[in-house]
From TrEMBL, chains A, B:
PANTHER family: ADP-RIBOSE PYROPHOSPHATASE, SLR1690 PROTEIN. Residues 14-156 form the Nudix hydrolase domain. Transmembrane segments: none annotated. Pfam families: NUDIX, WHD_NrtR. Belongs to the Nudix hydrolase family. This is NUDIX hydrolase. Keywords: Hydrolase. The keyword Hydrolase applies. It comes from Streptomyces brasiliensis. Gene3D superfamilies: Nucleoside Triphosphate Pyrophosphohydrolase (3.90.79.10), Winged helix-like DNA-binding domain superfamily/Winged helix DNA-binding domain (1.10.10.10). InterPro entries: Nudix_hydrolase, NUDIX_hydrolase-like_dom_sf, NUDIX_hydrolase_CS, NUDIX_hydrolase_dom, WH-like_DNA-bd_sf, WH_DNA-bd_sf, WHD_NrtR.
DNA sequence: TTGACTAATAGTCGTTACGACTATAAAGAG
DNA sequence: CTCTTTATAGTCGTAACGACTATTAGTCAA
């Protein structure tokens, strides 16, 4: 078999198509992820990634944006970055029926507290490190999303999506350090970022105290470029995930 | 709406889930892609990417391997690289019904001639440059696949998937030049590749004439590593696709 | 057999990038 | 006032990289 010649409706097994969202943010210097507590079986009481069904008139991207708005109240926040991660289609990933799920990664700066949606007991930002174990195959989706974000930081200006519209280089550096879990040399980081054309541009005459302590830092905005040249590689790893 | 509470079968609109394959190879120094000519409406007589429905018991990956075997006769070829690209879910991408398609990219070295499958008029390797226009949204899928392969060459040892088990550095370089569409300096390419630990390993005592002309080249095998450190960046581009 | 021609391999040179540092400046806390 | 904290400036040696030139080892055509 390859393809029913006429596409007869229901001549083949129908699939449910859902979206799952791995939404990251930085809170108090730690990477957090948006999770919902399931209200019903299976996995009642377990934490899971937010998500839901793709409606007949929606693309997966549209469904992801709608679900994100419903779960967190962020509809069109300024620095909203949404990216398709991959699709998970193993039979048996949902014990009830055949569900194919398109996973997305989203990054938000300084988000509001989420309010629990329809069938979730509650929704909350939880530290990434303490997130496991999750329902279904969401542990794997979350790990894949983290890998992807870490890799994207190297080659794109994605880090600015974690920051407010105007930010200091120290804040930007903390994004890298938090996601990668490594410390970076501050002067070298500064040199690299400023030497990459289009990564950040200075806000003329503005300065902000980063919580009040230390010398006030200059403010920057995200630049015009999305791809970093040369890339900002993380220090000394031997093997990264492909 | 977010989610029907009970997952009642057919309580929501069912989707057809398919896979589409962008299979690349190198023939006569040019990038070729595997295409099928559609035998029926819509787009009868147009070229399209090979693909088909995901069966109820399959994952998308399994379906992709099955379709690839059916269309080309390559079942478990040694250097078969299969990677999920992304999922295309826009409503209306198939005029008949709602179809969500998981796209894959595959690379094969020196493939056999394909034989036309079930509902395809014929299957053939066609040069990438002359491939457009294709049926459905396959132009976009193919362009995305090409972008992805080009980017993967920079950071992974993917180029060896285009080569036979034993290859010369000249052949490896031609992979980069063909996919990227740029000429590379031969001594510098050689230095970079040999300086990257685990990329290639020499085959002791073996040498091959690359078509008979010139000095015989040493043979290499693919190394143990999948991720290149440091990356082999393509020369002087200002903006790449994100 | 001899002299193009071709492709592989070796090596050089100057510039830039990068990691590890040290030093200075500007704020708040006690 | 001084200690602490954070931002910013700059230095230095090494490694990487782009642009070359040179040599070697084959085929091919006269």
């Amino acid at each position: 078999m390859t393809m029913p010649t006429g596409y007869d409706k229901y001549a083949f097994e129908p699939f449910a198509v859902t979206v799952d969202l791995a939404v990251f943010t930085l809170r108090a210097g730690a990477l957090h992820v948006l999770l919902v507590e399931r209200g019903q079986e299976p996995y009642a009481g377990h934490w899971a990634l937010p998500g839901g069904f793709v409606l007949p008139t929606e693309s997966a991207e549209t469904a992801a944006r709608r679900e994100l708005a419903e779960e967190t109240g962020l509809s069109d926040v300024g620095g909203l970055h949404l990216e398709q991660l991959r699709t998970y289609s193993e039979p048996g990933r949902d014990p009830r029926m055949r569900v194919v799920s398109v996973a997305f990664t989203a990054l938000v700066p300084d988000p509001p507290e989420p309010h629990a949606g329809s069938d979730a007991a509650q929704a909350r930002w939880l530290p990434y490190d303490t997130a496991k174990p999750l329902a279904f195959d969401h542990d794997r989706i979350l790990a894949d999303a983290h890998d992807r974000v870490g890799a994207r930081l190297e080659y794109t200006c994605l880090a600015t999506a974690f920051c407010p519209p105007e930010f200091t280089l120290g804040e930007l550096q903390r994004v890298y350090e938090t996601v990668w879990g490594t410390a970076l040399d501050r002067p070298n980081f500064r040199r690299k970022v400023l030497a990459t054309p289009g990564f950040v541009e200075p806000v003329p005459g503005a300065a902000r105290l980063t919580g009040g302590r230390g010398k006030p830092a200059a403010l920057y905005r995200a630049g015009a470029v999305t791809t970093l040249h040369p890339p900002l590689l993380r220090p000394s790893r031997e093997g990264r995930p492909a």
